[in-house]
């Protein structure tokens, strides 16, 4: 439908996609105090439980998913309300700038700026400075990982207690990992769309998408350098039983690399951060779904964190698909595995 509207000149696919994904306004919640504010000029929505628990609460910075292109405060309203009430936490949902209008690093900079502001004003929200977590799903998981890495070495702000990464996208070097091959046509995120969104975020357009999908955008020496972190060899064998086709090397195209070389920056692809950064990261929670092209990004990051001595809680939805958390109570419908995934996040938060 979006393509039809685009061809007729009525609106773009992205405009149409944003329209159909927009959440509807919810009424007041008797258990929460909700207000729309700005943190360093970044729009945020703050959810505060009304019930007093006798001390400072946990704080959660939530970065929504949507491929850096879609999503809003309203889209994730039900998810944020649920997290706040069930974990008795103050939740700050961040409305970062979206691509393609605002290219990388706009979304990352907004999330970092809002996080820094919150960490500097925790007392105002009665939040325990020792229990602040960054959390995000999909592209939001990417942003949470990037913000966590940036703040890991900072001594002028309270240290993050944890990072929660829900089926995060963490690299754009290899779109042929086992999970990309196995789930290339599985909703809600097709293999081609994953590359499309990454390119829109990086450059504001999807030029050279085919070359990126084939792997022609990374120089051989760089591919060799990152192979220790981005490789099917680091994926447990149990995740290859659904079939994996070995792929030969593709021809490197230098002009394509010139347009996408920032894919090698950890603030865009956190899986590529050096060990010296990764080992400083806080306790982590990673949720993956079996039927998701981004499954292996989560598995590879889990291994990197564990190899660097970072405690990791991993929750795998064997019957889950990409985006299932965002569909919690969507138009009155919920997927049982999505509810299990959301509750696993709540249980992790309660343990902090």
TrEMBL record:
Transmembrane segments: none annotated. It holds the Pfam family Abhydrolase_3. The active site is at 138, 292, 322. InterPro entries: AB_hydrolase_3, AB_hydrolase_fold, Arylacetamide_deacetylase, GDXG_lipolytic_enzyme. Residues 60-207, 253-325 form the Alpha/beta hydrolase fold-3 domain. Keywords: Hydrolase. One of its GO terms (cellular component) is membrane. This is ADCL4 protein. It comes from Sylvia borin (Garden warbler).
């Amino acid at each position: 439908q979006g393509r039809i509207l685009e061809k007729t000149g009525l609106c773009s696919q992205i405009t149409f996609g944003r329209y159909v994904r927009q959440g509807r306004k919810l009424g007041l919640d008797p258990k929460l105090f909700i207000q729309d504010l700005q943190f360093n000029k970044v729009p945020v929505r703050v959810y505060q439980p009304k019930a007093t628990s006798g001390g400072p609460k946990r704080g959660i910075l939530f970065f929504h998913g949507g491929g850096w292109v879609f999503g809003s405060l309203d889209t994730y309203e039900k998810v944020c309300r649920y997290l706040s009430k069930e974990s008795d936490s103050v939740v700050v949902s961040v409305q970062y700038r979206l691509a393609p209008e605002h290219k990388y690093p706009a979304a990352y900079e907004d999330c970092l700026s809002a996080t820094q502001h919150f960490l500097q004003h925790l007392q105002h929200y009665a939040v325990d400075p020792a229990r602040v977590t960054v959390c995000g799903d999909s592209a939001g998981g990417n942003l949470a990982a990037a913000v966590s890495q940036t703040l890991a070495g900072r001594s002028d702000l309270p240290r993050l207690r944890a990072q929660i990464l829900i089926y995060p996208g963490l690299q754009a070097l290899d779109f042929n990992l086992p999970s990309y091959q196995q789930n290339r046509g599985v909703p809600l995120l097709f293999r081609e769309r994953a590359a499309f969104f990454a390119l829109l975020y990086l450059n504001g357009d999807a030029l050279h998408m085919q070359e990126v999908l084939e792997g022609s955008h990374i120089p051989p020496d760089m591919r060799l350098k990152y192979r220790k972190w981005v490789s099917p060899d680091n994926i447990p064998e149990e995740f290859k039983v659904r079939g994996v086709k070995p792929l030969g090397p593709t021809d490197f195209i230098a002009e394509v690399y010139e347009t996408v070389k920032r894919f090698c920056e950890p603030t865009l692809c956190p899986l590529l951060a050096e060990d010296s950064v990764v080992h400083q990261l806080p306790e982590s929670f990673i949720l993956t779904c079996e039927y998701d092209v981004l499954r292996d990004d989560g598995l590879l990051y889990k291994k990197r964190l564990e190899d660097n001595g970072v405690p990791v809680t991993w929750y795998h939805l064997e019957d889950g698909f990409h985006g299932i958390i965002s569909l919690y109570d969507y138009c009155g419908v919920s997927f049982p595995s999505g509810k299990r995934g959301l509750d696993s996040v709540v249980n992790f938060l309660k343990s902090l």
